[in-house]
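Task: encode each sequence below as structure tokens.

Item 1
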Amino acid sequence: MQKNIEANLRVRPQHALCMQFFRGEGYNAGFIKNTQELLEVLNRKDPVVTLAAGCDSFCSACPNAEQTVCTDEEKVSAIDRRTLELLSLSFVDRVHWSELISRARERIISASLMPAVCADCCWSEICFENTGKE
């Protein structure tokens, strides 16, 4: 991972939810390693991140990312839009990682709104299981 990575972090809005449930599982070893490294930086340094439309820093190692577009872009973009609406944020907003996580926890996870936001996600079962709110 490059040295000053926290200066350029882009995060899809839905990843404010997803990363609260990440447990070292994923598409492949490269994706898992990238995610673990990013989370370490985000949680340790709490940088300001830019809310991204399209692929972000987590997606960079995802096998479903083709250049800057997800192979399932329509579905994941809808999840991003629902997340942004509930967080009262917009694409290209810049916010500290801890604030983004806190808003997601308070306004979506604790409010039992994850099924409304994430029902179309192939990983949602893991998250719903960990929140106990299916």
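Item 2
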Amino acid sequence: MKKKILRNWGLKLISLVIAFMLWYLAVSTDDPKETQTYSNIPVVLRNAELLEQENKVYEIQGSILTRVSVRAPRSVIEQLRASDIVAEADMNMLTDINTIAITCSVPNYEVESVSSNPAVLKLSIEEKSTRWLRVLPTTTGDVAEGYVIVGTKIDQNRIEISGPKSLVETVSYAGLRVDVTGATSTQTANAEIILYDADGNIIESERLHKTVNQIRMEVEVLPAKDVPVELSYTGVPSQKYMATGRVVCDPETIKIAGSVFALANINKITIPEDELDITGATGNVEKVINIRDYLPSNTRFADANFNGRVTATVYVEPLRERTMLIPEERISIYGIPDKMISSYALPGQSYKLTISGLADVISRLDVTDVSCVVDIEEWMDDEGIKKLVPGTYTLPVRVTLPKDVTAVGDFYVRLKIEEDKEDG
């Protein structure tokens, strides 16, 4: 038997080799090698915490997706899906030019080769920075007519942000915004924090991290009303000066806020006269008055930025003089004794009357505004004269002038007193 097995062993070996080659050719022909490219394969970054430990942050330049080419038998390619491919970049392999080689694999499959395009991941690496920001509350929209925003409150007025130093330095402040369109009552909301640069432009970046993303904000809305400020004054100016009566308040009206009931019966804000004392003044008296203490009960200033101060001015001017000519027909004569008559010593003349007052007032004064009376009977009583004898007398004239106008010195006329010859 042994001899039969070993007989023609060379020929048998050749036959075995030929059979193997035929088998290999048959298999290769039925399951040939192919290359397939898969797009949008995400690259997983490994050991990213290494940069964080060095207080640095990174940003991937370009896409985090890559294209992977796989060479494998057709039977494998037909089963392979993009989700079966793993693409990784290990931070331990970071180069001096901030690139990391992308390594690809296809677990659970026998493949001949795997490659990616691009072959490296490019990073931008920067020092990490942290800073605190003030938080400024703002509103959008307009409240209902007749209402105002009297104040805002927020639960915290500072937040911390972190990120790349160059980006963190561009942030100036954090803001909150609540829409108050048509509001007639206090509005409360958890407002999103928005970052702004120094010019008020919004900064949006996933690379900036905030300690909180929302802050509770309250916007107080109340009814409002415009009311005038009423001023008065006390005291008398210096001699030869007079208050014009004009008192000006700047601003003239103040917007106040409060409940509907609190505002219902409020028509003005009254400032006591002792706040404005013009005693001895020789010119306009101006004073800044804090009217906060004079606000009606249960009200407040509608403008939270208004400091409560108004400027009050009392106008004081020097007195001026003017000489008027009073014709004799404008002078009334009363109290002539019985059986006597009077006439002017110099008939047909006008008499000079000097008046004093504010320039604007006396410049507009007309003789018809002046009342002149000679009361002979009253003059006799004052002089103790029991009986008036005929003769020429210089008699005082009682002058009545408009308010705040006075006569300067005494005003006299000369009258001739005679017996009435026509009287029986």
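Check on item 2: The two ends are 205 Å apart (CA to CA). The mean pLDDT is 90.
End of task.
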